[in-house]
Amino acid sequence: xxxxxxxxxxxxxxxxxxxxxxxxxxxxxxxxxxxxxxxxxxxxxxxxxxxxxxxxxxxxxxxxxxxxxxxxxxxxxxxxxxxxxxxxxxxxxxxxxxxxxxxxxxxxxxxxxxxxxxxxxxxxxxxxxxxxxxxxxxxxxxxxxxxxxxxxxxxxxxxxxxxxxxxxxxxxxxxxxxxxxxxxxxxxxxx
Length: 191
Fold this sequence. Notes:
- There is one protein chain.
- By secondary structure, this protein is an alpha+beta fold.
- Helix content is 25%, strand content 31%.
- It is built from 5 helices and 14 strands.
- It has helices at 18-25, 47-60, 64-67, 95-102, 122-134, and strands at 3-6, 9-12, 32-35, 38-41, 71-74, 78-79, 85-86, 90-93, 111-115, 139-144, 149-153, 159-163, 167-170, 174-180.
- The strands form 4 sheets. The protein has a 6-stranded mixed β-sheet with strand order 5-8-9-10-11-12, sandwiched between helices. Strands 2-1-4-3 form a 4-stranded mixed β-sheet, with helices on one face.
- The longest helix has 14 residues, at 47-60.
- It starts with a strand and ends in an 11-residue tail after the last strand.
């Protein structure tokens, strides 16, 4: 059963498949994910996450991948090999992937970045990470803004936790995309 659950109200809709869901989802005002037949409303990026995105893009702009046309793109819907539809908070797409999407293809980024949401359980995180890796993502960063931590998954079973002065790296996906973890949580401008 495909159920859209929103705070205080439940809206029921049925979809034959992920393609029919995707058509409906792109017409909506807010983002929705499609996970094992259930429609889940996705929260928007919060103010505290905006500064983290700003710093991530600042560090990304210095990479060879950026110079070659790669981009960190926010809130892109992804049709996954698991028949689920996810919307990572940020994802890395090459120029070729971006232009392939414009022609109707459904590229899978090699890096997906998520911010921990208050409504997510450990099971939700594990399911999302599994979805990404089963679909070809090579690296998943789960960012915990309140705790100033980054969980970097290189597989559903392999995770490294970065904090403080630890250097977080997107290698081997983007070898020169790295920074001290504390620097993406700075609230003052200092380049």
